[in-house]
Fold this protein.
Amino acid sequence: MQTTLLRLSCPDKIGLLARITNLVAHQGGNLKEVAQFTDPKDGWFFTRMEIETATLRNGLEALRTVIAPLAQELGAEWSLRPAEARPKVVLMVSKLGHCLADLLWRWRSGELAFDIPCVISNHETLRPFAEREGIPFHWVPVTPQNRREAFAEMEALWTSLGADLVVLARYMQILPTEICERWPSRLMNIHHSFLPSFVGANPYQRAYFRGVKLIGATCHYATADLDEGPIIEQEVVRVEHYHSEEDLLRLGRDCERLALARGLRYHLAERVLVRGNRTTVFRD
Amino acid sequence: MQTTLLRLSCPDKIGLLARITNLVAHQGGNLKEVAQFTDPKDGWFFTRMEIETATLRNGLEALRTVIAPLAQELGAEWSLRPAEARPKVVLMVSKLGHCLADLLWRWRSGELAFDIPCVISNHETLRPFAEREGIPFHWVPVTPQNRREAFAEMEALWTSLGADLVVLARYMQILPTEICERWPSRLMNIHHSFLPSFVGANPYQRAYFRGVKLIGATCHYATADLDEGPIIEQEVVRVEHYHSEEDLLRLGRDCERLALARGLRYHLAERVLVRGNRTTVFRD
Amino acid sequence: MQTTLLRLSCPDKIGLLARITNLVAHQGGNLKEVAQFTDPKDGWFFTRMEIETATLRNGLEALRTVIAPLAQELGAEWSLRPAEARPKVVLMVSKLGHCLADLLWRWRSGELAFDIPCVISNHETLRPFAEREGIPFHWVPVTPQNRREAFAEMEALWTSLGADLVVLARYMQILPTEICERWPSRLMNIHHSFLPSFVGANPYQRAYFRGVKLIGATCHYATADLDEGPIIEQEVVRVEHYHSEEDLLRLGRDCERLALARGLRYHLAERVLVRGNRTTVFRD
Amino acid sequence: MQTTLLRLSCPDKIGLLARITNLVAHQGGNLKEVAQFTDPKDGWFFTRMEIETATLRNGLEALRTVIAPLAQELGAEWSLRPAEARPKVVLMVSKLGHCLADLLWRWRSGELAFDIPCVISNHETLRPFAEREGIPFHWVPVTPQNRREAFAEMEALWTSLGADLVVLARYMQILPTEICERWPSRLMNIHHSFLPSFVGANPYQRAYFRGVKLIGATCHYATADLDEGPIIEQEVVRVEHYHSEEDLLRLGRDCERLALARGLRYHLAERVLVRGNRTTVFRD
């Protein structure tokens, strides 16, 4: 059954949900799933709707035509697309392959529906894992000298391949500020700590020395402020005194995989709505 | 800010959410929170709305008047009430006081908003804990001989006190079938296992002998089929080989407290919608 | 069955566990539970043993006599006591009663075995909850002007009452550095965040604004560095975009109660061994 | 650093740990990790030790020589082996590849240390995933007619390849009773429910219809009684009313992967000691 995804956020008003559901109903659209949240703190309205495409008398584009003026009136940020459209997701990696392997399995098995135009890395290590799946692999080394050019090359790749999203799947380089600003809510990172604990480098080592009893991972959108972007998903696991730093790395890998896979899942299904530094995530 | 709670379920139809939100909007009602779920399996529609009471131009009863005919047309099960109305909840206990103590604390501190017309028990053990809070305590011993009369007496108490809900907070007696049938979705039980594991007596002992690595508790509505009623909430905790049966009891108590408190919270806020043996719980 | 608790830590050496267990065996002591951990990072040895007291041919004090010279030779920090000795625990509170209520219930029901010489608070709010349990309540107001005297008065109380441990059960005042230094590993605090996230004031508010997807609580020993002491236990709970700051407070309360109760349990049973800023916790 | 693993269980006696640690100490063995548990219920002693191999004056075999007579005297079940020996693990699969993919990644990356003599399946589906890793793949179709011969063929394979362990990684066939009996604690299964809930077929479907709020997976040793074998590890995940049967399958896959990977990890490191239907798992 084909599905149309509507995602919309705007300042709150009385009657908003009624107006939108009316528009959908007048097109014959059957609502399969509706999520709505009004943030009482700053009076903001968020909604996401799954509409049975076959019931839309005049199709998705006709629905777009009637929603557009309302969205403009409301000052809304919104999107409307077929759920079946597979977003193009570029994967960025360094040498650690656990997140890549996990995403490739979910992609290959169809659990997550997206296309992978390429994998990019600053090392050759993971080339075989991409290429054996038939995915182009680009090696773009990054040095203090070529940083600017290297990232320009990568961003050009993203653009030329029509990337809808770029996933930093344990890509251990810090992205230039301007790139982060040009790709808002389209750069997804997995940080290997339970943010805001252990922002920055070597979080597992620091977790070990702090003696915490839980470690975790955070999936968030990258912004110019390192590790400060809107959080999409977090996962934690209990640790004990007998766990070495190496054990924390091992236990953390499972957290990273799960948090990233869930965050990506929510993003692909238009379930993440960002406002400022907070996300509304209509989880499934 | 006063709030009106609307809860409604019925067979699904195109345009349902639009019709209901229109009715509310026409009364001026500002929707603070809307939850909606359509069960694709059997085509059933569930919704719960929080409406800002002050914005209802003609008040809650006027809204009831316009919703009633729609609900009838739809064959809906529904309710509409002020969130501020405090349901009357009778607490039933035996000798174990941990769930009672937990509920009394949440009630006393205002975390949960309800009134307690009385505590009923088949033992005198917990009388002081109720009475020191100013809550009447009724001792109704149950023996094989007086079972029928004892439960008749208790049900009469519930009725005369206007109980909206009866909570079996580790009340270790099995209720007569007829009573379960007369109080559908109004008898809440906490079972000391992660159902459907260990239905029936001595679940912790059986968990111990089975050697499970997780134990739990289940909050559910009591039905004529013991431990088979609709599940509202469950909680689990990890156990290890070194945990004795007594340890399982101890660890389980925390699960029981949490699962019961959450289940009661959802019920009090009209967040639980029952259909057959499944619940839709719009959690908060 | 009476039990003797031995707790010992020292620099690691080959044959250490053999030497200690030999000493115990030569006294006839039956080991009911042995936990041992060697920290490979800094070569430190930690052990905790539960010995069946009745099997000690010459009793606990004779065992102490044979262990003392070995401990001295090893440069060990150690303790030996009957498990049945009930430590004296002073409870410090402000206005929030959830941790107090939880501890009082576990104390009253016998789940945790300790004595409460008194409850101390800078407010009168919780007096009735202590007094109805027959526990003396001391009101010691703290102002910027009387801080020094107030804490001197409280520390004098602790000392005169023979406190083995002081629990800051949501006591919202910062303790003077000298007091923290005089009571190492004997001041237990519950911090209302998942440390090291949100060190300091208003952690739930900051968690809300950061948009985290999990919040938590941390039970730790207080040290001169605020919120930097050795962590004993942590607990987390998932939160969603629709949870307000007030919801975080509510959800956090259950984390705080559980983390504090567990931390206290481990401490009372001599299960916590501190070295530097890390704890070895032989959990049960 | 090379490590020797000692695992031993027997009826409890006073002085047992002292005798064993003495034997190790007399060989010069440095104990890196000691886990000990005495089951008070049936008086059984379990221990596992990690010994620094380089410190054993006369090597591992000399240690075996001195432990053997003690073990015989005690009626102990025991093993002694270098941690570096890589057990041979045959993987059995059907059509679902998520557990296989997960184990292959952990194997390939070195997170888990074992050899895979072959993958066996009743379908050809997963052949490419094994073969691209250089692992032989055997297709052994099973029909009602050839069941006996098929399993005889497979068991012959296990034996001829010197399998130390056989992992049923979502192998959807029930093994013949005699085979289960011939391979006690050497057949590891992952069951797709939180046992003892939903023993048998279609657990996710049954979980859906029962309306549980948590689903899970169980890693256990296979025995003649289907799904009744000793449990090694369990994992659960919260589910909601809006999760379809298909969603449960998806969420459950992550539980299955984690529970199986952990169970296998514990087994490979000699951390699982079985007695009757219960396991002692000295987790790491």
